[in-house]
Amino acid sequence: VVVFARLAGPADYGHNLRVLATALVANCLMLQWLRYALFEAFRPEDADDQIATYVRTIAAITGAVVVVVAVLEITDWVDRALLAGIAAITVGMALHDAIVEIARVRLHAAAVALATVSRASLTALFGVAALWWFASPLALAMAVGLANVLALAPVLAKVGPSLRRGRLRWEVLRRFVVYAWPLAIALAISMIAAVAERFVLARLAGTVALGPYGAATDFVRQGFTVVGEGLMMALVTLAKNHATAGRTAEAQATLLMASRLFAVVAVFGVGFFTLLGADLFRLLYGPDFVAGLEWAVPFLVVSGALLMVRNYYFGQVIYFTGSAAIELKVSIAAMVT
Q1: 191: helix, coil or strand?
Q2: CA–CA separation, 254 vs 93, rounded Å?
Q3: How far apart are CA 296 and CA 115, in angstroms?
Q4: Is the pLDDT of residue 164 over 80?
């Protein structure tokens, strides 16, 4: 975030944030719901057919998205540079997250961690190169999409052979859809609620104003997200395995431990960013880039902490209730408020 913001400048970085916000909403509609369905329905004794069905569904959805993008490109309904940027980030992120989910349910923690580190490293490397050589928001979007795909190498090396086993089973696909159809709507609504202020700010004040606001917000959110996602991957996954095996007491104890750790992270993060956030932003981005945002730092920090706890702890309740309908209700409430 810091490097991209400094290299791109407020206007171009704000444009890229608008592209990214659109891609995040599209990503939720594309494959995120399927990830949740696999994690909830996964059973080791039926793993090969479940994963085979999952992978073939990914391929079908990705193919459909490519066709839609091609039609929009040919008919020129959307600005081509904007469409290409959104498509590159959407497809790259969706494929990365969907394939990493296979390693997650297989409990290949090292491969998941390496893929996460690889995505961050390659995104920084390719993004800097794109801005340095082309100084274009489209080049940055293409670089981010490519980084997401190439970062799958550690996961594919681990789970690649297993992808060829199993077969497509319609009853498995039906189970995925029946469980997760509310999630496709809920996740999109939730993401729209999370990024709506960016579209409003870009519309009212332009991408020049959106750039500094987005840079500060993303820095805070990414800090919470890295820790929150790590806790979720480790403890919520373990609790789900206990629950699947009928070990209710162990699952509850693991979730209790997770709740305490999330509370500690939230309190520490709020204190750290409230005390040092404004000075840290001026040091990293430069005084002119974030001028006038100091008053908003406490609000950004508290919202970032609450979003982490909501997404990575309370948002995981759907795996233990057998229904995703509650997520749809919560997302609608978030959108309304």
Answers
A1: helix
A2: 29
A3: 34
A4: no
